[in-house]
Amino acid sequence: MNKRFLFNCVLAFLLFINLEGCFAQNNIDGNTQTILFIGNSFTFGRGSSVMYYHPESVKDLNDTKIGGVPALFKTLTNEAGLNFIVSLETSPGKNLEFHLKEKESIIAKPWDYVVMHGYSTLDKAKPGDPTELAFAAEKIASILRSKNPNINISLVSTWSRADETYLSSGHWYGQPIEKMALDMRKGYDIAAKKAAIKDVIPVGEAWNRAIKTGVADGNPFDGISAGQINLWTYDNYHASSFGYYLEALMDFGSVTGYDPLSFGKSDRVAIELGFSPAQAIALQKVAHDELTSREGSAPLKTFIFKADKDFKNL
User: Fold this and answer.
1) Among 18, 28, 280, 285, who pairs with 81 as Cys (CB 3.0-4.6 Å)?
2) What is the residue-averaged pLDDT of the chain?
3) Three-state SS for 296?
4) How many beta carbons lie within 10 A of that of residue 111, not counting itself?
């Protein structure tokens, strides 16, 4: 074998190992933990580049080669020095009852964490009604606990849909943009209580905060104001990359207890999604403020962020 070729192969391998270790060098917790995301297009990132963000970094239990919010979460935890094996089980337009009836065999495993949510209006036929969500959440939680009694389960309270608020066909037509998200939260609180789930991740309320503080524009139908971002994608229903990034930051902070503000301007996810440093930090602050505003929540822990050397100077 050509010695120069062999040398180059060894060098390439060592460089690869070094790049992989850039995140691990700040290892906060050496324990490997498993997490499963159960959801629909609000999890897999429809309408944005997030949908195909590093699918190789996560395990898609339906083998659809999707990265989505779970892959954003995976990169964030790597950057924080946390060791998570991340899986997802998603299907477009489905509620939790679908996953209960059709996917029990693949979700019924001894996960350490599960993050899940239902349909975007709680009930497709009866918008705002949490009955179906609460029933399915309780059943799924029971199945998951039978596999691991110490499992940590979180429900994700989702965002206001602009199409449901500003179009006359919408259930929340004529109401303030924040109203739908608040109704979603009430529904998820009911489901959490019924299923004995302690944590509801307030993603929709984080969106409301982003709008209230001027980080995001609250009405995509009349144009996006200068200096603001659009949390929705082109259909004014699903999230943009900005919206999914905020969702991932909320998941990260809620599940790990670490502060999203620790990432700063050199966060790899924000850079790969094409955000400016100011946009990344603004969304991190929104997540920080929303997480710390939760009643009874423990103070967020900080970590020393060590960016990938290929990204930290960008």
Assistant:
1) 28
2) 91
3) coil
4) 21
Distance (Å, rounded) from C-alpha 253 to C-alpha 261?
Answer: 10
How distant, in Å, are the alpha carbons of 75, 196, 280 from that of 14?
21, 48, 31
pLDDT per residue as tens digits for the range 185-196: 999 999 999 999
pLDDT confidence bin for 24, thresholds 50/70/90: very low
Beta strands in the chain (DSSP E): 29-39, 59-60, 82-90, 113-116, 152-157, 199-202
Is residue 71 in a domain? yes
- What's the predicted TM-score (pTM) here? 0.89
* Token representation of residue 162: 């602009």
Tokens of 257: 């207890």
Domain count, the chain: 1
DSSP 103-140: SHHHH-S--SEEEE--BTTBSSSSTT--HHHHHHHHHH
CB atoms within 10 A of CB 257: 13
Amino acid at 287: A
At 56-94, the pLDDT tens digits run 999 999 999 999 999 999 999 999 999 999 999 999 999
CB atoms within 10 A of CB 56: 8
Contact 163, 233 (CB under 8 A): no
SS3 32: strand
Instruction: With beta carbons less than 8 A apart as the criterion, state whether 139 and 118 touch.
Output: no
Q: What does the DSSP 8-state code read for residue 159?
A: P
Domain annotation covers residue 304: no
Which CATH number fits the domain that encloses residue 172?
Answer: 3.40.50.1110
Distance, in Å, from the CA atom of 128 to the CA atom of 111, rounded to the nearest integer, reads 30
Q: Is the dihedral of CA 254, 258, 260, 266 positive or negative?
A: negative
- Structural domain range at position 72: 32-292
Q: Is 5 part of any domain?
A: no
The type of residue at 51 is M
Residue 175: count of CB within 10 angstroms of its CB: 16
Residue 308 inside a domain? The answer is: no
